[in-house]
Write the structure tokens for this entry.
Amino acid sequence: MDAILLQVLNGLDKGAAYALIALGLTLVFGTLGVVNFAHGALFMFGAFCAVTLEKVLTISTKVKDESITFFEAYKEVPILEANFPVVGGFIVDWSVPFAILLAIPVMLIIGLVMERGLIRHFYNRPHADQILVTFGLAIVAQEIIRHYFGANPIPQLAPDAFAGAAPIGELFGLGKNVVYPWWRLVYLGFATLIIGGVFAFLQFTTFGMVVRAGMQDRETVGLLGINIQRRFTIVFALAAVVAGLAGVMYTPILPPNYHMGMDFLVLSFVVVVVGGMGSLGGAVLAGFLLGILQSFASMTEVKSIVPGIDQIIIYLVAVVVLLVRPRGLLGRKGVMED
Amino acid sequence: MSVTGRTPSALADWILMVLFAAAVLTMPWWLAPFGANYPDLMQKFAIYGVFAVGFNLLFGLTGYLSFGHAAFLGVGSYTAVWCFKLLTMNVLPALVASVVVAGIFAFLIGFVSLRRSGIYFSILTLAFAQMSYNLAYSVLTPITNGETGLQLSLSDPRVVDSALGVEVTRSLPSTTFFGIKMSGISGFYFCAVVLIIAFFVALRITRSPFGMMLKAIKSNQTRMKYTGFNTRPYLIWAFVISGMYAGLAGALLSITDPLAGAERMQWTASGEVVLMTILGGVGTMIGPVLGAALIKYLENIFSAINTGELTRMLSWVPEGMQDFAVSTVGLFVGDGWHLTLGLMFMIVVVFLPGGIMEGVRRIARLFSRRKAGPVEPPRATNIATAGEGGA
């Protein structure tokens, strides 16, 4: 029982990342009708926003180390911390959450530039062309990151307050073995918040209503005198922000590297397909589901029965779903069913 | 596919074939001014040419965009190396075995993937290729030798060779074609001949009724189905043939360098062959070969430039600007070669969807505008060619 709960928990945080990326992919596909292979790059850009902020905040000076009294010793201390010991130290410690503030405007701009500069020329081109051009863009993005940040993963630390593991088992009376890193809990909460926010935005605001109407029937909405194109562009930027924030908060879980975008993209695409192309709920559901499945498949007990299953489980599920239920778990009838 | 919607005559095809063969075989001479006339590089031209020609048979004719073709290349490579390890260093059995195994593999994947079309097909093939790649790295390590890559060793049995009494050398034996060592220039000529044969077969397939059928599927599959054709067998065959080409290319890679690694199966490798085909011109005969050669050539040039060399090359830039110039250009060369590749990818898709061949055609049209009547743009020809499909 404990083991099962643990695996579910382990799967949830990865699933949350899949769900957030897949949500953006689905939004873009549902509104603009574009298959965006560069969406993983947005996730990566978000993660590197956190890296950049951390680098900037921790630009260091040499300060005399008082703890060593035998000889003159110096240690590196971030300028911020040296000048404002309390506030500065706090900001440096909390650099990952603070990176959200940096990531929102940055991702908005990247999203808008990408949509206006490239994607809009591809609305009416075949899906193959869209795939190809965004694939090229994804390569360019990852190579730029590699050029400036190197090929090695750059570990990021969660704030000290969230270091260590939460004794979930004790809280719920399930035995002491069930522990779960605090930061992953935070990530789960954050992801839930974002997903809830996006759904609420689409469901309860006028803007969201227009967007949903546009997803149903773009032409009619346009004929009603609404500039649907502009709204879709904003939706694209929104999707970029969602992916970026998912990346920012994921950095303490997975040290960001230049190919993380591609790694997550392929899986997120599979998630979208499993959930149902164009179905937002499906994307979220499938994201969590596949995350949990993957985590179960990497249990040693499972691996001893079917070796290598952890490597292929997601793809296997995708293949089965596509063949048995082509429109995906929650896909609408007739949408991209072929 | 011809631009004017008219099938070129048999004579034109033979002329094309002869010119192509001549161009390929004389590569060592006419590539000399480009500094690309050494065997290693020319082998790559030929091998990736085979790969791209095969890919084009699927993507160019049927319009089905596979993002998993590198899997077949990898399977072909592994099969060939295993042949060298177990049977003989002669390349012929390895070639045949690779093509057969890759074909079977392609049949299995195609049988499942081709139940869907469009983007779903792309994602399915991508999923299968990633599955193969992940498996090659993990569970299948006994077969693939994981990250190290599969290579020859002195303790390999090589049953046929030892039965025939080929003397055992102390160093690793090299691949041979009935005694001709497959290294250096002879290796290139072997690949070149294979490319010419592969090209010839692809040409015949394209011009055959079968090829017509594939083009018809691309232009309007629904209509094909209503006319009473079952398109599925045609698609599966196209996929299998295309997979066999990839397997052949994989075998050639192993023949020129008997080392097979899983990174050949990664999806970026699949993306590369897509780019080769697109860059040259989807659906044209020569295009994919041109695209493959161009990319391998540029890769060779760009990735060889390091910072020191760059500084020397940019020594004419004014003093203050030099560091900036070096770092900017440095983005695109050396390790950054993939950036250039990605940019090329985008530029071609955005501005020249028909690839080099369309560029050539556009230029040719400029010169012969008065003579030729209005020429249909390539995208509009689909229906015109489809009409001849049933014949």
In short: The CA atoms of residues 50 and 65 of chain A lie 29 Å apart.
